[in-house]
Amino acid sequence: MLTKSAVIAELNKQLLTKLSYLNTNLEQAVDSRNSDTKSSAGDKFETSREMAQIEIHKIETEISKTQQFIFDLFSKVIQFIITDKGAFLISIPFGKLMVNDTAVFCISNTAPISLYLLDRKTGESFSCNNLIYTIQ
């Protein structure tokens, strides 16, 4: 059976894996930038270093975003709702997550469908995007 704690644990695992991957990429990008030697074509050297710096900045932004997601996962009010059309974790906008061979859609509380999902009781139905959902 799919539980809220199992979904949160899997989402946290995915976020930590992503964070580890990003940190490895950051280390490699910094090493690459630092090992770039100055050639006789000074402009080429400066362009190469600037491109590396842009990549480093992108990775640092992703790391910051992922760290914020991890913090938000445990600090924001989270609702886990199962419908006849799928399961939804209202917390962070992560997207589709597979847990025990079941798709769980991790969405923020500002996602359009979350407005329909919040404060519903078991057995209630609602329509969103021409689909009828029933809370289970």
Terminal residue distance: 13 Å
Strand % is 15-25%
Helix content: 40-55%
Number of helical segments? 3
Strands across the major sheet, in which order? 1-2-4-3
SSE order: HHEEEEHEE
Instruction: Describe the main β-sheet briefly.
Output: 4 strands, mixed
Radius of gyration: 21 Å
Low-confidence stretches: none
User: What is the overall shape?
Assistant: elongated
Strand pairing plus helix content: what structural class?
alpha+beta
Number of domains: 2
Task: Quote the average pLDDT.
Answer: 90
DSSP summary, beta strand count? 6
SSE map:
Elements: H1 4-35, H2 42-75, E1 79-83, E2 86-90, E3 95-99, E4 102-107, H3 112-117, E5 125-128, E6 131-134
Parallel strand pairs: 2-4
Antiparallel strand pairs: 1-2, 3-4, 5-6
Helix pairs in contact: 1-2
Could you describe the 3D structure shown?
- The chain is of the alpha+beta class.
- It contains 3 helices and 6 strands, in the order ααββββαββ.
- The longest helix has 34 residues.
- It has a 4-stranded mixed β-sheet with strand order 1-2-4-3, covered by helices on one side.
- The protein starts with a helix and ends with a strand.
- It folds into 2 domains: 72 residues; 56 residues, no CATH class.
Structure described in brief:
By secondary structure, the protein is an alpha+beta fold.
Q: Which short descriptors sum up this protein?
A:
single chain, 136 residues, alpha+beta, 2 domains, two-stranded antiparallel sheet, 6 strands, 53% helix
